[in-house]
Amino acid sequence: MKRLLSIAALMFVFVLSAPHAEAKKFGGGKSFGKSFKTAPAPKQKQQNTNTIGKQDTAKGASSKKGLMGGLLGGLLMGGLLASIFAGGGFEGIQFMDILIIAGVAFMLFKLFRMFMASKASSINQRQGTAYASPQASNNEQPSFRDNQQYFQGEQAQPQPQATGGFGAPAADEIPHNYPPGFDVAGFINGSREHYRILQGAWNHNQLETIQEYVSISLYNDLVQERANLEGEQHTDVMFVDAEVVRADHDANRAQLSLQFSGRYRDSVEGVEEDITDIWHLERDLTQPNAPWLIIGIQA
Q1: Residue 189: predicted pLDDT
Q2: How many C-beta neighbours within 10 Å does residue 133 have?
Q3: CATH 3.90.1170 given to domain 23-39+143-298
Q4: Residue 45 carries which DSSP code?
Q5: How far apart are CA 270 and CA 216, in angstroms?
Q6: Is the pTM value of this prediction over 0.85?
Q7: In the prediction, which pLDDT does 109 show?
Q8: Which member of 143, 144, 203, 266 lies 3.0 to 4.6 Å from 23 by CB, making a disulfide possible if both were Cys?
Q9: What is the pLDDT of residues 39-66, one digit of tens each?
Q10: What is the dihedral of CA 150, 35, 294, 269, to 10 degrees?
Q11: Cβ neighbours, 10 Å, residue 217
């Protein structure tokens, strides 16, 4: 018994002393630079008002279709029942038979409702994708440094709004004030690719690539952190998505905060972990064609 206890104690100590393997993601899993309070934008603010009229029209057409379908269905069912009663189809029927028929009819009705709902949902998703990705046909790679593609029209520099500005009172605690004409969907789509680019640069110690994306102070912190890792790393981004969790601007600068979610792994260590990073970006509006730079990372 004592021998078994000794072996168990040794195994417990070995497990506790074993080094914890983790994927070496961009930034080393630490927080650097500036940080801000963040939160997803309220649902009503993300609603596209241009589609309200289309939705109302679609609802009206759907209600008309439902009314006509109900009338035609009622006439058809009435005709069937009349023919069955007239032909003696219910002669000798039992109460249990009626329950079975009612149950089968209910099941068929539910299946029909589910089929129509799934069909309508797929149509709405295709319409939403077509609207949310107006630049999907563009094969050029989006870039934080190529800012003009995220602004529509002729506005090279966004003008301040009365509701914007740092420190100005907002309806919510977390501001979501975008510069005029800013393409949110295009920026988010580009950020996914840039997350992969920076992770690859971190793996191969390509500091010159990282320097193009970050502020000077953040770059110095990242250089010191990367120096703690020996050789190339093997962290692969399996999948990643992004969401704007803060946006604000004034006459001099614009700021955005992106929250990434997804999964990454270390192919050598055999470790998989979640992506939960937040990047804080800033753009100098006093300079033409100024790039978006990462000024803070929250792990």
Answers
A1: 95
A2: 13
A3: no
A4: G
A5: 34
A6: no
A7: 75
A8: 266
A9: 988 775 444 544 444 555 555 555 555 5
A10: -120
A11: 13
